[in-house]
TrEMBL record:
One of its GO terms (cellular component) is cytosol. Residues 751-760, 879-894 have a biased composition (Polar residues). Residues 823-837 have a biased composition (Pro residues). This is Ubiquitin interaction domain-containing protein. GO terms for biological process: protein deubiquitination. The lineage of its organism: Eukaryota, Fungi, Dikarya, Ascomycota, Pezizomycotina. InterPro entries: Ucp6/RUP1 (IPR055335), UIM_dom (IPR003903).
Length: 902
């Protein structure tokens, strides 16, 4: 009889005691219980006696014999790993006499059993296995040998070298192929190789949105992102974006190093390509240096900062990158933001003053006082997760950084130093690192006062530090007392247990035993009544009849249960009292954290003298920044009452969002306080004084204005090209839908038709004058300022009559024709097709078709090349025609781009 299925209680008991996995080992435990008649104790003992043997015995393992046996289940393989039986059971084995039939010559007394009804080939295998280790060749072997001989002869006739045939008998004891799970202990490394499981995906930063998706939102500030050439994540772009919105910081960054005569141009600079100086280009062309020599070819540090500030000033793009500046910072792996300040201060000690603060490190106790002055531009604040139990505001966080030694050691030791601010910069940057605080319990103020850390507040700071130390010591004492209430040590084993857990388990066990006594006494009452169901329909409602001994046990159990419950109540009350004391002490810490943070407090003996700092921006992830932009003051204010000029923006670049990769959102500070924690990154805070925010903005130098204008013109051409390509695709689709295939085929063979098609469609994708920077080998070179060439000026001013098809001829299409050249005739009998708008900003201009009786004149003697071949007759793309040919020499400067573009 099959073993009974074990109960779930028995399975759970074994799993709990043996600490096995309740999911993966459940089937093993069930099999063990079935094999031991459900005896959980025997199973547990077997487990602890031999765990490996237990698993091997009761775990379902791979059965290799099924792959080696015959179809009837027998296994006569004689050392062969696997045997595939032929579908034809009447194959003849050469050289072997088959054995007689098992059933003999007489009729059997009963039908043969399936186990004895062997196939002819199987019987022959059984017979040959007894007589020889290596059987004679079969018909299949003979066929394989013939096939191999034919292949060798064909290869030799074709001149292909083949390995020599082995002679003799192959060792039959060699191990055959193994068919089963991969459970070997080791494998030959040469037999392994890494192959891609899926198609390689393009990284997120390799994707570049279209120009229309990168256009700057009206009123929104531009911002800088990390870029795709940086080796580590950083927030340098967000920091520079915020500093640009502080006029004093912006002016200081522009003043560093002095203005350059030319800032060059590169259409891919916004994506991270360098712009080389003219003298560097000259040395490269002369072969004096190579691009591998970064010390000679790298851009100037200050000039790259100037480009970024000008870009943020007046760009039409929504974002750019700081990849070039990142590569100019030495040792960026140690924190590019901090290294940027150090590099800038080393090269520009005067311009860095508004961005730097000075700290004095002095001894706490009297005696020989040793002061040390330290300057920094970025204060790094790092805390562990456990420290945020005492830190709830930004002020308290800085307290533990400025006064960290004193708060850590408790009583000040000899030589312990404390920090004071001697000067606080007009811009104050706090870089939070380490673990994240609880967003619901950490406060970042919008208005910040560093009064408590000033040098003239040394006495007040010592009193606050003393109070901080007292509160932290009191909290430590209360937390230790709470642990003593919970912990109880086992005297025999030394293991510490939780008093509450032990009391709860004891209460549960004794209540179960008391319930057992009650049930047994009630059952006794029912049994004495002869199990009278009329008198006692439910035994649980019967009156208990306990013996004297049971009554004593019952009363004693009640006393134990009351004691354990009283113990739990006592511990809970004491813990509540300790928590109340903790709340009072933490409330005192909150009071300490608010001291000297509000200048409007009355009755203060010494008024606050520090500047008021406003939060101007928060940088979170490498491509997300929160910026507070101050609108210019309006001369006429139509609104009643004061109106805030500050507007918070959340600027983000999301590369994997194809629909909206650039996001610009208007927020208020309450929304900002919530959203900054959703990026799961410690924020970088930038504060600035009111004076720094209200400083007038210095105008850009002329060279920088030319640089940003050229950048905007390139971007305008990108937008025009995108719009034109979309419009032409729609136009070509409409024309191809109306023209039959036969007409298109014959029309394409005619040069005149090609000219007409080109004029009517107005498409010239290879026009150099419309895209002066495309396909140029000197995109990063500043060129000589010059007036547009006469051909370009004529192309901009020529008024071309509309074609019959209703599509205007572009001026660039006729720029390559010589004087006297006239436009080719339009296609006949083509109805006008109004193009559909490709975007909200695209407004297709459809001109009225001329009368068929007045076709545009055409010169039969024209020798100009066809429009399709004009790029062959034009100068190379990197040669720019100069309107003034009398200039002596060539001066490399910013590129001048025509204002006209489509």
């Amino acid at each position: 009889m099959a073993a009974l299925e074990p109960s779930e209680d028995a399975i759970s008991t074994v799993i709990e005691i043996t600490e096995l996995d309740p999911v993966q080992d459940r089937d093993m435990v069930r099999q063990a219980l079935k094999s031991n008649n459900g005896d959980a104790q025997t199973v547990i003992l077997n487990w602890y006696e031999d765990r490996d043997g237990f698993r091997q015995k009761y775990t379902n393992k791979w059965d290799e014999s099924m792959f080696q046996a015959d179809r009837d289940g027998s296994n006569y393989n004689n050392g062969i790993s696997f045997h595939i039986e032929s579908s034809n059971q009447n194959d003849i084995v050469l050289g072997a006499t088959p054995p007689p039939d098992a059933h003999g010559l007489t009729a059997p007394s009963r039908p043969p059993s399936r186990t004895n009804n062997r196939s002819p080939l199987a019987r022959v295998v059984d017979w040959t296995a007894v007589n020889a280790s290596v059987g004679p060749p079969t018909a299949h072997d003979q066929e394989d040998e013939n096939l191999q001989r034919a292949l060798r002869e064909s290869a030799q006739e074709a001149g292909i070298s083949v390995p020599a045939q082995e002679s003799g008998v192959i060792n039959a004891s060699a191990p055959g192929p193994y068919f089963g799970p991969a459970n070997r202990s080791d494998y030959d490394n040469n037999n392994w190789a890494m192959v891609p499981a899926t198609k390689p995906e393009v990284t997120v930063r390799d994707y570049v949105p279209g120009p229309s998706s990168r256009k700057r939102v009206d009123g929104a500030p531009a911002f800088l992102v990390q870029g795709d050439t940086s080796v580590s994540e950083h927030r340098l772009g967000g920091l520079l974006t915020i500093l640009h919105e502080i006029p004093l910081a912006r002016n200081s960054l522009l003043e560093a190093g002095g203005a350059a005569a030319s800032y060059g141009h590169n259409s891919e600079w916004w994506r991270g390509q360098e712009i080389l100086a003219p003298h560097v280009l000259a040395r490269l062309q002369a072969g004096e240096i190579s691009l591998a020599d970064k010390s000679e070819t790298s851009p100037v540090f200050e000039e790259e900062i100037h480009r970024l500030m000008a870009f943020l000033d007046a760009t039409d793009r929504s974002y750019g990158t700081v990849s070039v500046l990142f590569n100019l910072i030495p040792f960026p792996g140690f924190g590019p933001e901090k290294q940027f300040y150090d590099q800038f201060a080393q090269r520009n000690p005067v311009e860095i003053q508004p961005l730097y603060s000075k700290v004095i490190l002095s001894q706490v106790q009297d005696g020989e006082e040793q002061n040390e002055e330290v300057s920094f531009g970025l204060l790094e604040v790092e805390h562990a997760k456990s420290e945020f139990q005492n830190i709830k505001t930004l002020y308290e966080s800085i307290d533990h950084i400025i006064w960290g030694d004193l708060l850590a050691w408790g009583d000040p030791a000899e030589g312990t130093k404390i920090a004071y601010f001697r000067e606080v910069g007009e811009v104050f940057v706090i870089n939070m690192t380490g673990d994240l605080p609880d967003p619901n319990s950490f406060e970042i103020p919008e208005v910040f006062y560093p009064e408590r850390w000033l040098e003239n507040r040394k006495e007040d700071a010592l009193r606050m530090m003393k109070s901080w130390e007292q509160t932290k010591r009191a909290i430590s004492i209360l937390e230790a007392a709470e642990l003593r209430l919970y912990e109880v040590r086992d005297e025999e084993t030394g293991i510490i247990h939780d008093r509450r857990v032990l009391a709860e388990k004891a209460t549960e066990q004794w209540e179960a035993y008391r319930e057992y006594l009650e049930s047994r006494s009630k059952f006794r009452t029912v049994a004495e009544s002869g199990f009278d169901s009329h008198k006692h329909p439910d035994y649980r409602s019967a009156p208990p009849q306990m013996t004297e001994e049971e009554q004593k046990q019952y009363e004693r159990i009640g006393e134990v249960i009351n004691y354990t419950k009283g113990l739990l109540t006592d511990v809970s009350q004491k813990v509540q009292a300790l928590h109340a004391e903790l709340e009072k002490i933490r409330a005192k810490q909150r009071v300490l954290g608010r001291l000297l943070t509000d200048p409007n407090v009355l009755g203060r003996a010494k008024p606050m003298a520090c500047n008021k700092y406003l939060l101007r921006g928060i940088a979170t992830s490498p491509d997300v920044v929160y910026v507070c932009k101050r609108e210019p003051e309006q001369l006429i204010d139509l609104e009643d009452g004061p109106r805030s000029r500050d507007q918070w923006w959340r600027l983000a670049y999301v590369a994997h969002d194809v629909d909206e990769p650039v996001k610009a959102e208007k927020l208020d500070f309450a929304q900002v306080s919530v959203r900054i924690w959703k990026d799961n990154v410690p924020p970088m805070l930038v504060y600035a004084t009111e004076m720094a925010v209200d400083t007038p903005i210095d105008p850009l130098p002329e060279a920088l204005e030319r640089f940003v204008k050229a950048e905007n013109k390139v971007f305008a051409q990108e937008l025009s090209r995108e719009e034109r390509e979309g419009r032409e695709e729609m136009n070509l689709g409409s024309i191809d839908a109306m023209a039959s295939p036969s007409k298109r085929k014959h029309r394409s063979d005619s040069p005149d038709s090609m000219i007409s098609n080109r004029a009517s469609l107005g498409s010239d994708d290879n026009d150099f004058f419309d895209r002066p920077f495309e396909d140029s080998g000197f995109e990063d070179v500043g060129f000589e300022d010059h007036d547009p060439s006469p051909a370009v000026e004529m192309a901009q001013m020529v008024q071309v009559p509309p074609t019959k098809a209703g599509y205007s001829v572009r001026s660039s299409d006729i720029a390559g024709f010589g004087e006297g050249t006239k436009a080719p005739p339009p296609l006949p009998d083509r109805p006008p097709i109004p193009p559909k708008p490709t975007s909200l900003s695209s407004k297709p201009h459809v001109q009225e078709a001329p009368s068929p009786s007045e076709p545009p004149p055409y010169s039969e003697t024209d020798t100009s090349p066809l429009p399709e071949m004009q790029e062959l007759a034009r100068p190379p793309a990197f040669i720019s025609s100069n309107g003034n040919s009398n200039k002596a020499g060539t001066t490399v400067s910013d590129m001048s781009i025509p204002d006209h573009h489509e």
